[in-house]
Design brief:
This protein is mainly beta. The chain contains two helices and ten strands; from the N terminus they run αββββββββββα.
């Protein structure tokens, strides 16, 4: 058996593994008080879909589109190949599996993100603000939560 196929295979593996990834990470929650941010009674949503989009700022051409799904604790981790420093990128809510909490929360339904190595962070992980869907009917405990936060 020739060594050439083995060397060729190893060179292909080397090329594939040399690609760098940045990992966009965040959580999706159910805003159980309908106030626009997480509280002690917010619930993390498993199975929620999020999407990362990057557009060319001049032409508005779509350059990147990747979808991800949250795990059992509401976390998503989406690997993004390459550097997208020159593009306008956003992560946004797509869909909630919860019928009682499936309306995107205005102001917490998307987040602008930087997908670049050129930000002075040595880690390849980028933490994104939580994204939220609003529940149809606020929980009874929300009155106490609003008082604790001095919003009522």
């Amino acid at each position: 058996m020739s060594m050439l196929p083995a060397i060729f295979l190893l060179s292909l593996l080397g090329v594939a593994s040399s690609e760098k990834f940045l990992y966009m990470e965040g959580q999706v929650y159910c805003d159980t008080c309908r106030i626009g941010f997480t509280t002690r009674v917010s619930e993390w949503i498993a199975g929620a879909k999020v999407e990362i989009e990057c557009h060319d700022p001049a032409t508005k051409e779509l350059k990147l589109n990747i979808e991800g799904v949250t795990n059992s604790t509401g976390w998503y981790r989406i690997p993004v190949a390459g550097d997208h420093e020159e593009e306008n990128c956003v992560v946004k809510l797509v869909e909630s599996p919860r019928k009682d909490c499936d309306s995107p929360n205005r102001g917490a339904d998307s987040s602008r993100i930087l997908i670049t190595y050129n930000v002075g962070i040595s880690s390849n992980n980028r933490l994104i603000n939580p994204l939220g869907f609003a529940i149809k009917d606020p929980l009874p405990a929300c009155g106490d939560v609003l008082k604790e936060l001095e919003l009522a």
